From TrEMBL, chains A, B:
One of its GO terms (biological process) is response to amino acid. PROSITE patterns: HTH_ASNC_1, HTH_ASNC_2. Keywords: DNA-binding, Transcription, Transcription regulation. The keyword Transcription regulation applies. This is Lrp/AsnC family transcriptional regulator. It comes from Jiangella ureilytica. One of its GO terms (cellular component) is cytosol.
Amino acid sequence: MEDIDRKIVALLMRDGRMSYTDLGKSTGLSTSAVHQRVRRLEERGVIRGYAVVVDHEAVGLPLTAFISIKPIDPSQPDDSPDRLSGIPEIEACYSVAGDESYILKVRVGRPADLEDLLARIRSSANVTTRTTIVLSTPYENRPMTA
Amino acid sequence: MEDIDRKIVALLMRDGRMSYTDLGKSTGLSTSAVHQRVRRLEERGVIRGYAVVVDHEAVGLPLTAFISIKPIDPSQPDDSPDRLSGIPEIEACYSVAGDESYILKVRVGRPADLEDLLARIRSSANVTTRTTIVLSTPYENRPMTA
DNA sequence: ACTGAAATTCTTTTGCT
DNA sequence: AGCAAAAGAATTTCAGT
């Protein structure tokens, strides 16, 4: 990817609503040129979309946890991500190398909700779970530096 | 938090650039009313900001990993997050309950970069590390359902 | 690919209920 | 808190280089 495109992406990571006028000033291009580049980045899938960044505490989901899962029957094909995709508390699902097969990142309101969620995960996907509670988040979703 | 506010936030999670006109149509409010609510959500810190969602492969950082760290000398005060905050490859830092003290989420270009990053982490923070490589990401940053 | 300008739409402010 | 209308700014399109 090119240098100016990289800069545009980096700027949009810090402020996803930055105007093309301001992006132009920061890159030395006209608004139309920036606009065209952003459109292409979107078309090529480099830019997947735009999202609001929320305070999870304020939105009623103060409890974050990582849940590692492992199939109970390793001889069966593992379609855990599909089986779990309907559970809204699961914010992310990573297939990982190591003893366990997936790491889930989940957000709930309180410990009792986590207990309930774990039961749903175990029964939906036929897996064992290992939960790591997040106590605080020094930083998260930091923009890449470019 | 109120029901309409929750809906506005949920919509902005799916499309952070959705116009106030469209937000109004989806919530049954006028553009001004929606605008006022979004402004308050921003002031109250419920909405922290807006960001572009990028394809990390396309942007040259295809390799993701979770690195759990543990202080070598547990008697010392642990200021790892501060010490590590200058390392751009670290996208997130979570303080966690359990055997280890923090989980870092990192993104690099290739395995050799990860090796280099691990060396920097160990020397900067005086910690041992345990790395879990992400093989694929079935889903990530899914919007909360509301 | 970039520029500049015109047409359209969105944001933002203000006054009113 | 919400609505409507007006002013200002941004997006989007288009012709030209």
